[in-house]
Write a structure and sequence with these properties.
Helices cover 64% and strands 0% of the residues. By secondary structure, it is mostly helical. The N and C termini lie far apart (74 Å). The N terminus is likely disordered.
Length: 422
């Protein structure tokens, strides 16, 4: 009760003790305990609960509305079902739909889309198909969003046959495939059982095919979704749904198909296909965002390729050279050292080259990497040494600094080998 009381403030309790009400008088005590008095205030409470991701309380709020004799509106049910969709509470979603219909409110296409999406999150494609049939019986015309929700709901369970049937229906209706459709197709191939030898190749093929979709074919967010705070990634159950609200460039929304593909290949532990996909991304002139970096690292680690996994983690952490990221690299290197996990020449050189290009900060990470390589008697590559030398010279370091003297010596040896004076 204390948890619920904190949601709407002012010391008003959300759930009445033991659900007992005293309707005989509008006493001062009752008014103090009552947190909402009309549908507008209840809608505000629903929005507050959903914003705080305490979706398990939505059913309690609705029960309080009924006990207070407050009639929910269509907007109320939209907010309730959007909240249950985000928390994958299928039973509650169907309960609210039935309650809505019992009050004479006919669900519209936006609400049906939320229900189909909820089925997808709960891996229940059969219920999603039943909802589409109910829409047809109710003479509610499906939209492009409806088909994409259904496509991704079937993709979660690997229903390839259903997915391609939906694609044919979309084509017949004059709807082109957009990036969310291709993301669903990729998920369908990844989730189908049994996994075949050509699954990874098919995923790469779909990524290549997706480059032909145009913005004219894009099906954007509706005003209802915007008002409810539902992103397209959440509505279509895209792998980046839980990260899409993060700031700082964590997600590049232009890479939706790549996100789905990297996530799928990481689940399949297919390093070869993942590296081919990474090359495709680079050929497109794009760089991995934080989500893709996370999937690359996951693929390496699940494939027991620890060298590449640790390297990917630290390279990703050094993007933009933030203090938090650089500290993460130092902590990772420290943990590796404690476990006697040594840096290889290539891995050490690559990491030193990146760390050495830090323009601000204390240069702690680059110095730490240099010291580790020195302790292991590993000479970094010439590009890494040159970058580290330039980084040291660009800082106020005494000429007799041991690191500067040593890197000058190593750089001189490199240059002397190709006939240049140190």
């Amino acid at each position: 009760m204390k948890l619920l009381q904190s949601i709407h403030g002012h010391g008003k309790t959300l759930l009445r003790a033991a659900r007992l009400r005293y309707f005989s008088t509008q006493s001062e005590d009752y008014l103090r305990r009552n947190y909402a008095n009309n549908v507008s205030e209840y809608n505000t409470v629903v929005a507050s609960v959903a914003a705080q991701r305490r979706h398990f309380l939505l059913r309690d709020v609705y029960d309080d509305m009924m006990l207070d004799g407050v009639q929910p509106t269509r907007d109320t049910f939209h907010s309730l079902i959007a909240g249950t969709m985000k928390s994958s509470r299928l039973q509650d979603a169907f309960f609210f739909k039935d309650q809505m219909k019992s009050m004479g409110l006919v669900p519209d296409v936006a609400l049906y889309n939320l229900l189909i999406s909820t089925c997808g999150k709960c891996r229940n494609s059969e219920h999603a198909i039943q909802i589409l049939e109910e829409m047809k019986r109710s003479e509610v015309k499906p939209t492009g969003q409806t088909y994409i929700c259904l496509l991704n709901a079937c993709a979660v369970t690997g229903r390839i046959d259903r997915v391609y049937a939906i694609v044919r229906d979309m084509t017949a209706a004059g709807l082109g495939l957009n990036k969310f459709c291709y993301a669903g197709l990729i998920a369908a191939h990844k989730n189908k059982t049994p996994i075949t030898d050509d699954t990874a190749a098919k995923i790469l093929e779909l990524v290549e095919q997706s480059k032909g979709w145009s913005s004219a074919e894009a099906i954007g967010a509706t005003s209802e979704n915007f008002m409810l705070g539902v992103t397209l990634e959440e509505l279509y159950n895209i792998p980046t749904a839980e990260y899409v609200h993060r700031r700082g460039g964590f997600i590049d929304k232009r890479l939706t198909v790549y996100h789905a593909a990297f996530n799928a290949l990481a689940d399949l532990c297919n390093v070869e296909a993942m590296e081919a996909l990474l090359q495709m991304l680079e050929n497109d002139g794009r760089s991995p965002d934080a989500f893709i970096t996370m999937q690359i690292m996951r693929c390496y680690l699940q494939s027991r390729n620890l060298d590449r996994g640790y390297k990917t983690l630290m390279e990703g952490a050094m993007i933009d050279y933030t203090p938090k990221g650089m500290q993460l690299v130092c902590d990772t290197l420290s943990n590796m050292t404690k476990r006697n996990y040594l840096l290889g020449p290539k891995m050490g050189s690559d990491l030193l080259f990146i760390a050495a290009n830090e323009k601000a900060g204390g240069y702690t990470t680059a110095n730490y990497l240099w010291d580790l390589l020195e302790a292991q008697k590993i000479t970094p590559s010439q590009p890494a040494v040159e970058a580290y030398y330039e980084g040291l010279k660009g800082r106020e370091i005494p000429e007799d600094d041991p690191r500067l003297l040593k890197v000058t010596e190593v750089l001189g040896n490199f240059r002397s080998r190709i006939g240049r004076r140190p």
